[in-house]
Write a structure and sequence with these properties.
The chain is about 25% helix and about 20% strand. By secondary structure, the chain is α/β, with parallel strands linked by helices.
Amino acid sequence: MDVDGVEKTPVFEAIPLPEEVSVKEEFYELRMGWSGKIYELRVGGNDMVYDFRHQIEVLTNVPPERQKLIGLSKGKLSSEMDSVRFGALGVKNGIKFTMIGTPEADSFVYRSETAKQQQADDFDVRYKALAIAKGEAVRLVAPADDPRNKRKIQEVIRSCPITVMDDPRPGKRLLVLDLDYTIVDTKPLLEGSLPADECARPGLHDFLEKVYPHYDIVVWSQTHWRWLESKLVEIGMIGGDRNYKISFVADRTSMFPVFTQRDGQPFKHEVKPLAYFWASFPHWSAKNSIHIDDLSRNFALNPGEGLKIRAFKGAGTPDGLGDKELIKLGNYVCSSISSASI
């Protein structure tokens, strides 16, 4: 709904993939031969083919597009099958298979996912109502309830420790801010066509100073943390003398893709699970957290805590200089402190 120009994202549920989720999940213990060595893999039946191929990449540094798997299943596991549940492949538990492929470090092909490429993909998605399947063995679930996604959250919690810059304060709520096109115009920031402080959304520092008495502030971006922190310093959000502090930042390493359907076709997009923060700071929860983003797909696992605002892409233009979104947002966020709905 709209609150003074600010869109509060409703709790939408996903259209599930054709492959149904197994309530009693089977785990596959597999052995893979590659380059004269044997590798042990453990794959959940609810995992996607994407997860399986990514696990192989982590072990061998062979990217998915170069992996040729022999003796695993019928047909080629191409990227078009990324959204298929592993349990639907008909793989026999305990099987040994062979992988053929060249590690990325041994090739001359450089795969780059720059921040500019990441931000070029600015589609968004809303999750529609879900029909529950009848039967005891299977059910169709929303992204937040998918056992595969829950497992991925735990993997992020274990593998991505949080580096705190300013200790969270007892009794304060959590405010998670997306960086790209939410509080800064990323394009001129990346290109260097405008000074960093001019890429910031108008009213940014006033907004942060207004909410800071009530919220601890976290910035979550799809870019690498080194770039992220350096830009926050240039913008003046870190290391300045403002009347607010940033508790910590999170980057793309703490995100992962989820799989669902859009327009009847399988697709994947990355998400930002707030449970990643809640695990380290249990005084935060769904009851006292807000995630502000220009893309509602980013809070697919926490739709009730998501607050979508209009993207900011007009830095240096008259429209950009006249942007009032953060003024409206500050008023709404502070007026909602006593509400049980956030």
